[in-house]
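Q: Mind making up any chain with structure tokens?
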Amino acid sequence: MKDNPFAPIFRDAFYKDVLQGSIYTPTHNAEHPARVKTFMRQLNRFISIAGEAPIMYPKYAFNEHKLFEYALFLRGYMRDSQKVLAHLEQKHAVDKDLIALFKASSEYVVACNGKIGDKRTFDNTVGYKVWKADLAKGLQNASYTPVVKSISEQRHNLFLFMPFRIKDTEEMLNKWLSINMRQSLDNAAFQSSIDTYVVHYPIQKSRSSNITSVLKTLRFNDTFYEAEDVDFVKKHWLPFVAQNIELNEQNKVISANSYSPQMLFDNFRNITIFSYCAGTANAHRCLNVLFDLTRQIYGEKIADTAMHNVFVNSYGFLPVRENLRYAGVHFYTNAVDDENRREPFVNLNNHTLYEKTKVTSAQTPARLSLLPDGRNYILAMKLSPKIAFMQDSQIQELSDGEFGHNMANISTPNLYDRDNYAYTVFKNILTNSSLGKRGTDVLQLPQNTTPHNLLTNSIIQAHLQKLK
């Protein structure tokens, strides 16, 4: 796309992070392997289409490991470009040429396996890892069991779609889930009444591949899904749709024993999701598959009504569109004075919606917006300068280097916040929705508390002023 503002960002970063300190050979071209030439061809294509001069890399003998790290960090360069984030247009964020560049990046890092001295090995065809969490002793002492079969449609189920790509061990899962969810899952409901599952990619999945899927999800939001999304639904969610479902090789329903419409609606009420950052795009694609299979059996109208009972809580990723099939509350945190301090990933994924819904008053802890579909809320939280919390009987401090993207903003009580508004609201909404509550019942908080009173007033205002 012409004038894509990320082109000069990528170009400048290449000269700084890849070519700086390399050997310049003005009289002849340096030897580069085919994998480098293939990736650089796509990078230069993106840069040239945008109107920038191509990178004259053949004249440099550079360390390929620097190119490898550069390819993996493309999204990071976008994240750090606050001047671009201030005036971003959605067409630039989901540019088809940008998608092609990330695809080329993901293919390049796989091509580097075993060839540049890096111990990491990438395989972008891997599917999700799914674990059942036993939270009876709290999140810090949780245990996890790999899940390979279908999940009960008769239980309250919470699916945590997390963005991390980690080794599939209990130790690593406990570490990363604890870092993100902190104290938000520590209550009796998650210990006994709700089955909790964790969904994530294994460490072999490259960030570039995941971002390629995210960008395609943003561009083709209601029709796009990947093979791993289909596999997830086939393995784990078919009982929610019907009994004895048979699919052909094209994943079309051949036969099924359908439920009554009311039973279908009740089953879908038992699907609650929490998703963080890119995990929201993963969850959205899986829900696209769920809708497609349901539509084939029950028709568009019943399938659509059933999807209204699915509830998505997300953090750090705004809805892919303003009319969603499912319901939800979508949280993020932003600085009131966000000049050069914009929440980067919320901005990258939907700059327009960020500008419509962000907190702009230092006098209020949050801003609640109701989307046009009447089922989805966006709850923007005011960013605290610092987060302080108790851990192992010690006070720990955390500064959010990404201006609101850290989950700790809502998943742990902040000693600097007398009312703990963000934590209280998030934990209660997550619990309510996981117990199958829907509609405004999800938003109910313990009465006669400051968070309850403030949120109640916000709900009224949001319904009066539905987002336009």
Remarks:
- The chain is about 40% helix and 20% strand.
